[in-house]
């Protein structure tokens, strides 16, 4: 290996391991993330007609004011790297948006994988109108949590 390669690798290695992180996607929405933890919490919430408000169990649910548009929060699914939770927006019986509420982002590896995979999963959920979405290579654990949370949100919305 060349000296330049060694220096690049050395300086690109993350030494800080923060508990939480926020990532902005191409649409400039923020994604709240959780650190890796072993304790499992899994709870969903029913749709409401208020602005997003945090419940005592850490879940949120909201509905926009427009007719026929409601959001549904899927269950927070515990994976070996942290919780994954998805919110879908349903308009007139169709999924019009899927957004991740929680995803593991403890270290650079998590950030690199999930910042690329989550937008793909969000787009696939809207295109497929189901939790039957393809896995992004390298993000299998996130995919497992994402599809489970997505399915729970779809079930809450009573979509087939």
How would you characterize the overall build of this protein?
Strands 5, 6, 7 and 8 form a 4-stranded antiparallel beta sheet that branches. Strands 1-2 form a two-stranded antiparallel sheet. Strands 3-4 form a two-stranded antiparallel ribbon. The protein is elongated. The protein has a domain at 69-157: Alpha-Beta Complex (Sufe protein. Chain: A). The chain contains 3 helices and 8 strands, in the order αββββββββαα. The chain is of the alpha+beta class and 160 residues long. It has helices at 3-12, 108-128, 140-156; strands at residues 22-24, 30-32, 53-54, 60-61, 69-73, 77-79, 82-91, 94-102. The model is unreliable at 13-64 (pLDDT under 50).
How do the strands and helices of this protein lay out in sequence?
Blueprint lengths: L2 H10 L9 E3 L5 E3 L20 E2 L5 E2 L7 E5 L3 E3 L2 E10 L2 E9 L5 H21 L11 H17 L4
Antiparallel strand pairs: 1-2, 3-4, 5-7, 6-7, 7-8
Features:
Sufe protein. Chain: A; 8 strands; single chain; 160 residues; 4-stranded antiparallel sheet
* Biggest sheet overview: 4 strands, antiparallel
CATH class category label of the domain at 69-157: Alpha Beta
Secondary structure tally, helices: 3
Ranges where pLDDT stays below 50 over 5 or more residues in a row are 13-64
Distance between the termini: 54 Å
The CATH architecture name of the domain at 69-157 reads Alpha-Beta Complex
For this structure, the quaternary state is: single chain
Residue-averaged pLDDT, rounded? 73
CATH topology of the domain at 69-157: Sufe protein. Chain: A
Q: What's the gyration radius in Å?
A: 17 Å
